[in-house]
Amino acid sequence: MYLLIAFPIIAVITLLSFLLARINESVMQKLAAGLLFLLKSFVVLGLLLLAFLFVVLTNWG
């Protein structure tokens, strides 16, 4: 299950890194900022999901 989620992300990151090597630095900085923003939002969503699952599981228990 985790592999299904992780594999596309890893593939996208490797593709982006290959593309970034050919693009000038200003675009690279914008993309890096965008990737950081995405990473932060994924972390926040993940934490919210974990909290939700914890509440649901403890209420069912």
Automatic annotation (TrEMBL):
In its keyword annotation, does this UniProt entry include Transmembrane helix?
Answer: yes
Highest taxon above the source species? Bacteria
**Keyword Membrane on entry:** yes
Protein name per its UniProtKB record:
Uncharacterized protein
Keyword annotations for this protein, in alphabetical order, are:
Membrane, Transmembrane, Transmembrane helix
Specify the species: Xanthocytophaga flava
Residue spans crossing the bilayer = 31-57
